[in-house]
Structure formats: C-alpha cells, structure tokens
C-alpha cells in the first residue's frame, strides 16, 4: 500500500481567508441594504417626522466591533440616539452594522460609540 503525503495546512489557511472575505462581503452587502433602507426612509419627509425643518441629513453606515447580542444593539442605538439630529437609526446585530441619518459628521457617531467603549468604523 502506498502512503499518502501528509495534508498541508495551506488549504485550511486558504479556507479561512475565503471565509474572512465572504464575511466581509456579507457585511458590505448588509451595509448596502441598510443604507438603501435609510435612504428610502428619507423619502418619508424627514422634516415632517423629526421637526428638523431644513436641516440636511445624510445616511451613515458604521461597522460596530464586537456587537453580538440584542443588549449590545440597544446600547448602540442609545448611544447614537444621543446625537443631535440623529434619526432613522437601524442596528443589525447579525452584520454588526448600524445605519442612521445624521446632520453632523460621521466622526460624531464613531466618537459617541467609542465613548461607550465600542469600536466603530465608517463604512463607505
């Protein structure tokens, strides 16, 4: 009988890289869908719903690091709700993405989360 050569770890590493790329693609897809939902919500006359009048709001998507449960999502939503002129806040635990409409800069949202001990990056 011939002995087969020992299996290389190369396949495992390639598989892990492929899984990472797949996960990253899933996050980007979810962020796109959430951003689309937020943009669709802006067509619901945000000035009427928020009383902001002529304040210009923009859609922001954030990847929140380590968000793993509904309690985390509640904390994210609470932190973002504390921002002036933040509306249409949607938090998705599964993808780790939060989207919102905000009059301010995206860095304000990142800082609001960091001040609560959560890491966040702006998704483009």
Low-confidence stretches: 7-16, 45-50
Spatial order of the strands in the main sheet?
A: 2-3-1-4
Strand content: 15-25%
Kindly report the average pLDDT value.
Answer: 76
Order of helices and strands: HHEHEEHE
Give the biggest beta sheet. 4 strands, antiparallel
**With helices defined by DSSP (H or I, 4 residues minimum), what is the helix count?**
4
How many angstroms does the end-to-end distance come to? Answer: 57 Å
Helical amount: 40-55%
CATH class: Alpha Beta
Under the CATH scheme, the architecture is 2-Layer Sandwich
Number of strands: 4
Shape: globular
Main structural class: alpha+beta
CATH topology: Alpha-Beta Plaits
General description of the model:
This protein has one domain (10-123): 2-Layer Sandwich (Alpha-Beta Plaits), CATH 3.30.70.100. 48% of the residues lie in helices and 19% in strands. It contains 4 helices and 4 strands, in the order ααβαββαβ. Strands 2-3-1-4 form a 4-stranded antiparallel sheet, sandwiched between helices. A hairpin with a 4-residue loop joins β2 and β3 (97-102). The longest helix has 33 residues, at 10-42. It starts with 9 loop residues before the first helix and ends with a strand. Residues 7-16 and 45-50 have low confidence and may be disordered.
How would you concisely characterize the structure shown here?
The protein has 124 residues and is an alpha+beta fold.
């Amino acid at each position: 009988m011939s002995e087969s050569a020992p299996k290389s770890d190369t396949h495992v590493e390639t598989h892990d890289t492929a899984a990472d790329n797949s996960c990253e693609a899933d996050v980007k897809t979810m962020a796109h869908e959430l951003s689309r939902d937020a943009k669709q919500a802006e067509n619901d006359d945000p000035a009427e719903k928020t009383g902001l009048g002529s304040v210009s709001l923009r859609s922001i998507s954030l990847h929140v690091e380590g968000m793993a449960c509904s309690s985390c999502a509640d904390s994210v939503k609470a932190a973002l709700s504390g921002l002036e002129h933040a509306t249409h806040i949607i938090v998705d635990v599964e993808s780790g993405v939060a989207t919102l409409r905000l009059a301010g800069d995206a860095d304000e949202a990142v800082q609001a989360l960091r001040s609560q001990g959560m890491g966040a990056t702006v998704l483009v």
